Amino acid sequence: MKQIVKTIADKTIEYILSLPNGSNLTMFQAAKAVCPDETERLDELDLYELHSTVMESVKKTDVVLGFSDHEYKFEGLFYNLDFYVYHKRLQEQMEPK
After folding, report:
1. Average pLDDT score over the chain
2. Residues 1, 3: Cα–Cα separation, whole Å
3. Over 70: is that where the pLDDT of 90 sits?
4. Cα-to-chain-centroid distance, residue 63
5. Residue 65 CB coordination number (10 Å)
6. What is the pLDDT of residues 1-47, one digit of tens each?
7. I need a surface site. Which of 10, 23, 31, 94 has the fewest CB within 10 A?
8. What is the pTM of this model?
C-alpha cells in the first residue's frame, strides 16, 4: 500500500469513528476533511484502495457504515456514495424493548 494511502486511510478511520451517530458523508469527503491537500494527489486506484482499507478497518469496530440508500441501484463510484455512520451501542439503546 502506498504510504500516502495508508496515512489518509488511518486519519479517515479515526475521523469516521469520531463522528456523531447518524452523520452522513462520502468516503472522499471524509478523507478530504482530514487531509485536504493530500487527497488531490490520489488517483482512482488509490481511492479504491482507500475505500476498501477504511471499510475493512471500520468493520472491526462498533461503527457500521450504512449504504442502504444505494442498494439495488446502479450509481457512481463507491467512494462518492454517501453513507450514514451508526454506532452499534447507540443503536441498541434507541431500540424499543
Report:
1. 83
2. 6
3. no
4. 10
5. 16
6. 688 899 999 999 999 999 999 999 999 899 999 999 888 788 877 88
7. 94
8. 0.76
CA dihedral 32, 58, 14, 77 (to 10 degrees): 0
Residue type at 13?
Answer: I
Residues in Cβ contact with 24 at an 8 Å cutoff, skipping those fewer than 6 apart: 82, 83, 84, 85
Block residue for cell numbers 454517501: 82
CA distance 37 to 91: 34
- In this structure, the dihedral spanned by the alpha carbons of residues 95, 88, 20 and 84, taken in order and rounded to 10 degrees, is -90
Taking phi over 0 as left and psi of -120 to 50 as alpha, with beta for the rest, 93 belongs to: alpha
